[in-house]
Design a protein that fits this description.
Layout lengths: L8 E2 L4 E6 L4 E4 L4 E8 L2 E6 L4 E5 L25 H8 L17 E8 L5 E7 L9 H12 L5 E8 L12 H6 L4
Parallel strand pairs: 8-9
Antiparallel strand pairs: 1-4, 2-3, 2-6, 4-5, 5-6, 7-8
Length: about 180
Amino acid sequence: MSPDRHTPIELEQDCEATLIPGGQKLTLRRGERVVVAQALGGSFTVQTEQGYLARIDAQDAAALGLEGTVANEGPADSGPFELQHVIEQLKTVYDPEIPVNVVDLGLIYVCDARPLADGGHRVEIKMSMTAPGCGMGDVLKDDARARVQTIPGVSDVDIELVWDPPWDPSRMSDAARLQLGML
């Protein structure tokens, strides 16, 4: 079953969620009704009966009566390490409020890799959020780290949240602007 953006779903079991945009953890209880607003990147953004937005991880998809899918496990090509694989994986991480990945949204400010003595690579990423008060920074950082760590040849991942320069819509790709009706 795929989620319908307008049909309320009664939770089949308790599940952990993260309030958007504050980032606070909460438990949604069995029997509560939610509406799936977004199902991208292996997670679900739902609106509760009280009007709050919350993010539910793929591992709790059963509470929604849905199958959870973890976004791309890693590049299909297991050849030598390439920075492009990092970018591809980062494109599977989505903002929970805006249906655009963090790369096209312009949240990735720096993405570099350097070889390590063990033959692997250390990937260093500097990313921002659309607003300094956004509590989802750690959630998106964890998503990005988990995805990048699946890439063959990655030994270490360092992700830093930065606020300078402040994010603004001019950082979005043309594809993102088109998708959001901003062109």
